[in-house]
Design goal:
Strand content: 5-15%
Structural class: mainly alpha
Helix content: 55-70%
Shape: elongated
Distance between the termini: 87 Å
């Protein structure tokens, strides 16, 4: 192999990687502009669409309990609406914290102990408390399932950037958290 063949082999082996790098560099700005506009993302089993998920939870709650209407947007705390206007992601997380605080209060009220591992207490997990409250008959299936779905939405929102969550989604999450708080309050007011 002489130097010409060697040079041709190197150029041939670097042609595809170089063209890909150049293409990525040229399309970097247009792709970056499109990313904030993506409302849904799907890769394999992972699918993120907060608006659709919240609408499904709301429809399920409305269909299951027509006599207990969802809270009106005017009943959502003004602080939640203000925060949603500034930072929708923060509003979602703050409203969820209220739910977790109420669950901790109910756990204390019903003497739900933290799970243990090797004789040591593990931190109280809201999903474990809710499961125990369901088993004890303190909450109903609808409240438990709504909690699980909203918890999943909250987790997805926690891993998204603020630009990916819109004001309407934050308000809808606040509305559903208010419904869940009312349901927990109602359920816990009747000791079993």
């Amino acid at each position: 192999m002489d130097w010409k063949q060697f040079f041709a082999a190197i150029v041939g082996s670097l042609a595809w990687p170089t063209s890909i790098v150049v293409t990525v560099i040229l399309l970097k700005a247009p792709i970056a502009k499109l990313l904030p506009k993506i409302r849904s993302f799907k890769y394999g089993d992972l699918h993120i669409d907060l608006e659709q998920q919240l609408a499904e939870v709301k429809a399920e709650v409305t269909a299951s309990e027509p006599e207990a209407p969802l809270s009106e947007p005017s009943l959502i705390p003004p602080s939640a609406l203000e925060l949603a206007a500034i930072s929708p992601r923060s509003a979602v997380l703050m409203e969820w914290l209220k739910v977790e605080r109420r669950i901790a209060e109910i756990a204390s009220q019903y003497d739900v102990k933290p799970p243990t591992l090797n004789g040591r207490e593990r931190p109280m997990i809201a999903s474990a408390v809710m499961r125990e409250l369901l088993v004890r008959g303190v909450i109903n299936e609808l409240t438990f399932n709504t909690f699980r779905k909203l918890n999943r939405i909250r987790n997805e929102a926690a891993h998204m950037s603020s630009k990916e969550i819109e004001y309407d989604e934050a308000v809808s999450m606040a509305e559903m958290c208010q419904w869940l708080l009312k349901s927990l309050e109602y359920s816990s007011s009747f000791p079993s």
